[in-house]
Structure formats: structure tokens, C-alpha cells
Amino acid sequence: MKRMKKWLGLGLAFAMTATALAGCGAAKNEPAATPAASMPADTMAGDSKDMETDAPMAEEPGLPSGKINIAMLNDESANIQQIIDSYHMINPNLEINCIEIPSNEYMDKMIVQLSGNADIDLFWAGNNAQYSDFISKGLAMPLDDLIARDKVDMTPYGITYDGIKYEGKVYEMPIRNSIWVLYYNKDLFDAAGVEYPKGGMTYSEYRELAKKMTSGSGENKIWGGYIHTWPISWDRYAIQQGHTIIDTDLSPFVDALQFRLDMEADGSIMPYTEQIGTSASYKTEFAKGTLAMHVMGDFHIGQLRQLEKDGEINFNWDIVSTPVPDGVSANTTTGMSAGFCSNSKSKNVDGAWDFLKYASGEAGAEVYVKSGYVPAYINDSIKAQLTYDGMTAPENIGILLDQKVYMEYPAVPGI
Asked: Does the pTM exceed 0.85?
């Protein structure tokens, strides 16, 4: 089957969107060589050398056609591209163009674009708070009728299915989950003669271990721990105990922040002010080999594997379950689902829904699990792939399926 692949950007409707757009999908039914002069200026990105074309493909009868435009975080583009390529093996009729937006710009731009009737069919739902904001503003359409019409089996999504309901309705098809665990540099622990971290240790034990692993200064500084600048990085201490940020009593979150301040006082984690001043990142700090351990989501696995592939890290690493507060059972962590919503003003509901079903089902799960993520869709085949293959870190990847996960944020607008 001949296939056509073109890398296009889909220009956003408003001048504020200066983000570079990278096409991560391809139309499979357009002419092999569309003259540049005939293409709208706002759909062109880069030189013509960025376009790879082959002979046109015939449309398959009975399948959704036309085009859809997908807005997403730029971090998701590589996996979504693989899903699009796979989908086009089944349905070559549907043109899929992607809008990639950096995470720190995503929410503001999407609210403006969707409110302004931009030509977007699917968009990344974000975390629960962002997801609920989209819904409360009428920007996402409920999917329950489509799920029922097509008899989509939601069983493989487990508790995620209930977790994405907003006032009893579903507006998102989840694609992956985010499960937080502790990452550690095995080589640093070996060099220090210190035992590796154990899953289920308390935060007090984690704090003491971080102090033990901290050494040096300046360019030779080894940080025993690291707490990133995202509030969830310290709020977890309270959320693991079952608290939420919409509770009347927020004292557990005060305790959580105090724990971070205590570790800063110990000198075992980089101070918040230094993180901000130097634009420090959990990914960069760990990759440098000067960070002994830190807690991060399962998406970090894919990042580290890519860094290994690119030759940018050369140390051994692994994961264990995240530390827990006193009295909380081991393997208790936080997380959230991530997936796509359908624009309530989509111009191609059938095409968008057909791709969304595919991307959030087993086919999409196969792509994400190979990248080290925990897919939202879990069956026996996916479970089998979340096991150590004897070669690819982390050795303890199987623990991702053993976690009790509290949602990071409740689905409440404006939090």
C-alpha cells in the first residue's frame, strides 16, 4: 500500500498564536504534489523539503473522511504520530493535521482558540482542573452517546473511567495515565556505598537518605534529592493521605510545603529560588548524573530511555514506589489520566471520534507502553509489556501496575 506523508503546520486563527506548528499527521488522499501556490498561507510550515509525498491513495468506502485538526502538547507528538501512521493503515481517507503547543503556553492559548471558534476538532484535555475548565466553558462535547452508540467497552480503562467523569458525564477519552514513582541513580548509590532506596519508605526515611547522599559543592555538588517546582511535587504528601485542595481543612498541604522547606534547610535538595533562577529541570538535573533520587511521573521513563538512545546519559538507574507519609500503605501514590476532548464545535465529529476511539484503545496503548508510559487502556497484552525484558531500564517497571493512585486534582473548574 503506497502511502503519502507530509509534515504540515496548521496555522491558528489568532495572531497571538506565535507557536511554531509542526504537522504530526498526514492526509492520505490528497494529490501527490500540491503546488505551493495553491496552498493557504496559514497551512504552510517550513520549506517544501519538509514534505514527502508519494502517489495518492484511493479512499476506502464507508470510512470517515475529510480532515481533522488536533491540538496537543508538543511532548506528545512523537507517540501521536505513530498512532496516526497506524490509523492510516486502516483508514487512509481522513487527513489529520496537528497543532503542537508548549505545555507552559497550552492552557491560555487553547481557551482563546476554542472560544474563538478555531478549526480544531480534538484537543489535549490536560489535568483534571484544566479538563473541567474546558467543560465548564462549553468547549468540550460529552462523549457518552457516542460511547453507547458504538458499544465501546470501557472496562479496560478501570477506575480511570470513573475518574474522568464530570457531573456524571464523560468528555475525554483517556490515552495514558501518569503514575508517580521514585527514580534513583544506581551508580551514585554504589559509589557512596549506600543501599538502594526501598519502595514504601516513609518521607522521614527519604529525607534521611537524601541527606546521606548529598555531598560536594559547586560543579561537584551531588544532590541527595530533588523536589520539582510544580506544586504537585510537594502537595503529594497530603494527597497520598486522601486530602484534596478543595477540602475545608488545608493544614495537610501546609505540612506538605513544610516538608519541602525542611529538606531545603537540610541542604539535600536544590532550593526553590535556585531552581527558578537557573531554570533547573528534574529531567536535566537527573540526566547530568548529579542527582541521587527524585519523584516523578512515569513519563520520565520515556524521557530517560530517549536520552539513553541519544547517548546523553550513561549511568544505571531504576525505580521504586514513591515515599509515603507515616501511616499510609506502601504503593500509594498520585497520578492523573491524559487524553483528548472533542471540540463542541467540531466540523468533523465522525472523523474525530473515529480517530479518538482508535488512539485511546489498544492500538494507542501499544504505542505508549513501548515508550515507557502506562496507558489508560490496560488488558493482558499491555500488562505483559509492562515487565522487565532483561535489558531495558527500569528493571522494576512492573511496580507501575501495583500502585493505589489518588488523582492529583479533583475535576473542579478554576483550581
From this structure: no
